[in-house]
Amino acid sequence: MHAPRSHAAAAAAADPYNLKPGEHSTGTTIMAIPFDGGVVMGADSRTSTGTYIAVRVADKITQVHDRIWICRSGSAADTQALTDYIRHYLSQLAVETGRAPTVKTAAHLMRRMIYENKDNLMAGVIVGGWDVVDGGSVYNIPLGGTMMKMPFALGGSGSTYIWGLVDHKFKEGMTKDEAKALVEKAIAHAMARDGSSGGIIRTVVITEDGCDKEFIPGDKLPYGP
Fold first, then answer.
1. From 26, 28, 79, 203, active-site residue
2. Measured between alpha carbons, how far is 97 from 117 in angstroms, rounded to an integer?
3. What is the reported pTM?
4. For 3-19, how does the pLDDT look when each residue is reduced to its tens digit (9 = 90+)?
5. Is 105 a catalytic residue?
6. Rg value, the chain, Cα
7. Which of 32, 91, 122, 126 holds its CA 20 to 30 A away from the CA of 147?
8. DSSP structure string for 91-158
């Protein structure tokens, strides 16, 4: 006969994430890789509140200007509000200056908003896109508001499972097709391992010529060696 479980053990079983009262576990896999002439950005589509999947086909890649997009992780409400602000500010800036804003400007705006409100936000984002100054570029802004320009960027709970894979497969000067294939494969592997990532894979390819958004359904994920 088994001994009765203690209250602490029962609580731990009911809440494997050890969360505070009213706090929800969130999960995501987001990724971006610049290539010669643009950027590939990708994300899974699962929105979860603890162990409950609230949305299976969420869109975590948000356009904030013609050729600037943001991958969102953390609190969906926080990141949706932040991207709405950034879209508004970039639109005003474009009107005032008469030219398209740079990806760096968008990233600095997002960094400042996250850093100055870091005690009240749970937001980790990747800002990527194409501009006439830097071409394709990617900026990673994790929780807390640090901003780093990266040769590639990963974020969200699923990213911890694929750092080794991406380190192994990534190389400088990738073509568009190589970068897109790596984004899709890495996110598929993260979705297989991370219970908080799943659904479909959404990607967007951003170049001087425009933006091409696609998705891969859940039964056609490029998982494998």
1. 28
2. 28
3. 0.89
4. 555 555 555 555 555 65
5. no
6. 18
7. 91
8. HHHHHHHSSPPPHHHHHHHHHHHHHHTTTT--EEEEEEEEETTTEEEEEEE-TT---EE-SSEEESGG
